[in-house]
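User: Here's a chain of 330 residues. Predict its fold as tokens.
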Amino acid sequence: MQIPIIDFQPWSEPSSPEERLKVAHELVEACHSTGFVYIKNYGISASMVDEAFTWSKKFYDLKEEDRASAAHPPGSMIYRGYSKLGHETVQAIEGEKFEGVPDFTESYGMGSDDNPEQPNIWVKESTLPGFRDFALKFHAECWKASELILRALALGLGLPSEDSLLKFHNDIENELSYRHYPPISEEKVRRGEVDRLGAHTDFDSFTLLFQDSLGGLTVKHPKTGKWVDAPPIEGAVVMNIGDALERWSNDYLTSTMHRVHLPPLEDSYDGEGKQRMTRPRFSIPYFVTPKGDTLLQRLDIPVASGKEQKYKTITYKELCRQKSEGVFSY
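Assistant: Prediction complete.
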């Protein structure tokens, strides 16, 4: 499987309706066949993405007690605040993600400051001056790019208008996450004693993933079941479909299983033999989520017309609850 690469410039810059429609169809076809796509010219500058990684590294360079001052609150199922190593573990999946195997990663989740139901948990400004301001700015830029992608998906699916998916979303419930994968023994990962991030599907509408240069993301081919590397491509963001859009499209769009495993490049390791360790990896996912009370039921699109609805209609909030059970541990 080759993950498609799409040039999104006709959407991020002025262009003709014909050019926009062509790209919209390419995007939908990629999301149907693989569920994953690289998008270039998506509207966020490379310098801003680089700055986001700089801030992420600054956060993880803080003392443990300073990171812990913004800890994810006990008992909460909202993805906000700092989750230390071992605090989050994706749900077990038979044959892929085994019960009791820890995920060796830590994360810091944040969203809009305008959502009282999902309040942000910030480190003090004096601890990391400028951190909050930039994070909110980057969150807003990710949403601008995501609005265009939602419009393109609606057009490519043949929905009544470009706003047909956008109306189910707003920026205040989306999550931006600074994620860190500390060095771990290659041998332990190969033996299955620990995961970096176990196999899972995202349960949002779609995710934008910014990767550093080391790699490690792998995608399970929807048809063959083989794991395929999804290495970083300069100037491109990875976009993948989540469970919400898979349900809306009645399985036409594919929420593909993926994981963070071992990087394919030799210069992504330190040491040799049994002592070989992965180098620290950083990634920044932006999760585009429907409004909590939105119903996830088959949309009236040509590819789903006349077909029986495959999933029970539930709200997005209920899907979140189901998929988040057991993720957080204390």
